[in-house]
Amino acid sequence: MNSANPEYPRLQQFEQELRARLRRPLTLHITNNRRQVIRLSNAAEEVVLRINREFEQAPASFFEALTRYIIQGKRDDWKRVQEQVRNTTFEPRPRRPRTRYLYTQGERFNLEDLLTQVLETYFPELARPLITWTRASARRRKPRSIRYGSWVDADKLIRIHPRLDEADVPEEFVRYVIYHELCHAVAPPYVDSSGRRQIHHREFQELEARWPNLKQMEEYSKELLRRS
Ligand SMILES: [Zn+2]
Q1: Tens-digit pLDDT profile for residues 114-169
Q2: CB–CB of 167/114 below 8 Å?
Q3: Whether residue 124 sits in one domain with residue 223
Q4: Pick from 36-50, 113-127, 135-149, 186-200: least confident
Q5: Which of 59, 118, 150, 164 sits between 20 and 30 A of 46, alpha carbons compared?
Q6: Residue that is last in its domain, among 33, 55, 86
Q7: Are residues 193 and 222 in the same domain?
Q8: If you measure from the C-alpha of residue 100 to the centroid of ligand 1, how many angstroms do you get, rounded to a whole number?
Q9: 17 alpha carbon – ligand 1 mean position (Å)
Q10: Domain interval for residue 198
Q11: How far, in Å, from the CA of 47 to the mean position of ligand 1?
Q12: How far, in Å, from the CA of 204 to the mean position of ligand 1?
């Protein structure tokens, strides 16, 4: 991973600003290293900084302290940097599920084909996620709700309920469920100021509303549950 990665605009901005102020060459590496989350080699001829990507979320005060420390070398600024290190959670690298767990060809629908159609129409720029049918569980009684799809962000994976592969389900509805899950990938959940996790938030709803007959799809979703 290098600093040209557009996923880390804040780190890139920091790099540019630091470069403008330094009188020495600078190399910045954005890393996944969780053991050494920040590593600075501050030599007279070159500054090399290796920094974990989680610092993308760090506040401005962190970048100011780090910049000052690199330029002026004051211990107090390094202490501020260390404080931020203690306040940051360093998540493991996202897992990729092994392909043997992916079932894309159903009795009726091929999920890869439907995913391709939805991506081409609505999200041509999005990195292709994985998709799979989930396995049917033994049905004991009439379900009160069915989660037709889910988005597993850590795996970049869409999971689709096998009920949607049954004979009475229109292809358009399966495409819509895939679309809904892709909206989760594009407009991810966040935690609001009162600490609540917002999932189908406004940005999500606005995105989902691009689906041409959303109302009909929502009605159909209820109808399908009544029939299940
Ligand atoms: Zn949802």
Answers
A1: 999 999 999 999 999 999 999 876 666 777 777 899 999 888 999 999 999 999 99
A2: no
A3: yes
A4: 135-149
A5: 59
A6: 86
A7: yes
A8: 26
A9: 39
A10: 99-227
A11: 45
A12: 9
Distance 54 CA to ligand 1 centre (A): 26
Compute, in angstroms, the gap from residue 200 CA to the centroid of ligand 1.
6
This prediction has a pTM of 0.57
Please report the DSSP string for 2-70 in residue order: -TT-TT-HHHHHHHHHHHHH-SS-EEEEEE--SSSSEEEEE-SS-EEEEEEGGGGG--HHHHHHHHHHH
Distance 181 CA to ligand 1 centre (A): 6
* Ligand 1 centroid, distance to 221 Cα (angstroms): 13
The amino acid at 97 = P
Residues 164 and 59 in one domain: no
How far apart, in whole angstroms, are the C-alpha atoms of residue 145 and residue 154? Answer: 25
